[in-house]
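Consider the following assembly input.
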Amino acid sequence: MNFNFSEEHILLRETVRRFSETELAPLVREADDNEVFPKELFPKWGEMGLIAARYPEKDGGGGFDKIADCIIREETSRVCQAFASSLSAHSHLGIWPIWRIGTEQQKEQYLKPAMAGTKVSCFGLSEPDGGSNIRALKTHAKKVDGGYVINGSKLYITNAPMADFMLLAARTSDELKASSISLFIVDLPSANIEIQKLAKESIKASETGLLFIDDLFVSDDALLGGQEGNYPIILESLTENRVGVSANCLGMAKAAFEEANTYAHERIISDKPIGKFQAIGHKLANMSAEIEAAQWLVYYGAWQVDQGTLDNAMAAKIKLIASEMAVKVSEDAIRILGGAGIMREYSVGRIHRDSLLYIIGEGTSEIQRNIIARSLGF
Ligand SMILES: Cc1cc2nc3c(=O)[nH]c(=O)nc-3n(C[C@H](O)[C@H](O)[C@H](O)COP(=O)(O)OP(=O)(O)OC[C@H]3O[C@@H](n4cnc5c(N)ncnc54)[C@H](O)[C@@H]3O)c2cc1C
């Protein structure tokens, strides 16, 4: 067992940290206030190879591994979770399935520009009636001459208001069975898709959409991989991405801890730094230990992705621990800062409301517990 990051991984972390601190940090406040994502970030991330890092070189990727992808996510999330979540929806959810089973034409037309950041993707799975219960999705694709006609709705779709295409999950038969669920690549914006941008209390600078799809015709070429029945690919994609978003949680928790730790050293009450109060010191100790534990789970999961051994129960355990940890650590950080913790001058308030995303998105904590319990035979 070797727990050391390679020289390449260390260099990558330094590069992404420098980039995030110089290029992302100055944009955070305005983007959060205005709830607008700075779209110019995608081509910048593309140029730096941060979108394509985990994909093989032969497919136009950076030839790194999942560990590298987690480092990128962690360092981006350390500065701004809204930006990191939009990156995650694009670099994984919107394109991983295309990389996995897309036709050569689909890869050329969508995957390559997405890796370069010149096209922005989104992933349309969740629906008003089916967030946790994805098998019950109602959006329907009816086979017609030369293609399909799609009707339905999608809810809480990251990047949808600014995306150039969506990987859309739709039912290709009326039966409520997994094999009826297929994926389509749909160009956006479209006259047949109404997109409403949603106002949020978390990751405000990541744009989220509610979509109404009305008689949208797509040609047969839009069917991912040219084959109906892509549910196993959706599950594989979500499983890997649970490790990915756990790295996002790690980045948020580290940023909250760093701010609280600095504050505990600098804030003097009764002639001593507040960290000397046992209640504060113990809180920081717990936060540090919980971050350490989550860190090694996340990178173990990334290593398993690279070995091809990650299963859905392990992914669920990692996501459950990391997401709940980020909520708790960021709340404790607010407590340590006292009144300053809920002032906008500091980051911990924003980090805490952003941390709430991942106890919901990519499957709620309850759904992760269901998956783990199933693996135990229940
Ligand atoms: C900011 C944001 C961005 C998102 N981005 C995307 C995206 O890009 N693409 C996409 O497709 N989706 C996206 N989602 C949707 C996300 O995946 C869903 O919100 C999530 O799966 C939960 O679904 P829901 O909101 O419908 O909650 P519900 O499914 O209605 O759940 C409500 C409550 O009931 C509980 N519950 C439900 N079923 C069970 C069960 N079987 N056992 C125990 N408890 C249960 C849940 O845990 C939760 O506490 C996003 C969500 C948010 C908030």
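The longest strand covers residues 147-158. Ask yourself how this observation constrains the way the partners meet.
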